[in-house]
Amino acid sequence: MSGQIFLFDPTERFVVGTVGIPGERTFFLQARTGSRLISVSLEKAQVAALADRIQQILREVRSSEPLTIFERIVRDDAPLETPIDEEFRVGVIGLAYVSDRKLIEIDLQAMADSQSAEDEEALMEISESQDILRVLISLGYAESFAKRALAVVGAGRAPCPFCGGPIDPSGHLCPRANGYRR
Fold first, then answer.
1. Do β-strands 5-8 and 132-138 pair in parallel, antiparallel, or remain unpaired?
2. For the segment 77-129, what is each residue's pLDDT rounded down to a tens digit?
3. What is the CATH number of the domain that holds 42?
4. Comparing C-alpha atoms, which of 40, 147, 132, 133 is closest to residue 85?
5. Residue 140 in contact with residue 73, Cβ under 8 Å?
6. Which InterPro entries match (predicted)?
7. Which domain holds residue 129?
8. Could you say which DSSP state residue 135 is in?
9. Which of 9, 18, 36, 165 has minimal CB crowding within 10 Å?
10. Going by DSSP bridges, is the β-strand pair 5-8/13-19 parallel, antiparallel, or unpaired?
C-alpha cells in the first residue's frame, strides 16, 4: 500500500501548539492553505529538535548566502485551529533547504505500524507506505515558526532548581532532597 503525501506549497499557516495541561500536553503541528487543514501529533522532544535544526539551517543560510533576504514575519501566537483531528503521529522528520526557491522543506512522516511512541530502539526508516506531510515555508516564516516552537516547548512545567526534574503544581519528590517534597 502506498502512503499519501500531503503537500502544502505554498503554506498559509504552519504552527505548533498543545492540547492539555502541562505534564499531560499533546503537541500538534498544523498546516493550512485555504480551507485545507491538517494536524499531526508528535513528541515534545521532536518539536524542540525541529526548532533547533531550523535555526541551525537559517544560520548556515545567513553565513553562506549573505545577500539572501529574510522577510519579517510577525510571530503567530493564535491558538491551533479547530477541530484538531490527528491525521497521524510523526515518526521521522526530514528537513531541507531548497536554495533555488529560498524555502525550507519540512517532511513529517507517519510512524510505522510496528513502531510505538515509547519504543526508543525502533528503527525509523523512510518508507513509501507511510503518509507524509510536506510543508514548504519561507525563510522568514521558518524563523518565526522556530521561535514559537521553542516558546511552546518552554511553556511546560518549571524545572526543579535542585534536580532539574519537572515540578507539578502539587510539587514533586526531589531525589536530591532524599525524597522530601519541594
1. parallel
2. 889 998 889 999 999 999 999 989 999 999 999 998 764 544 444 444 445 67
3. 3.30.2450
4. 40
5. yes
6. DUF3090
7. 5-177
8. E
9. 36
10. unpaired
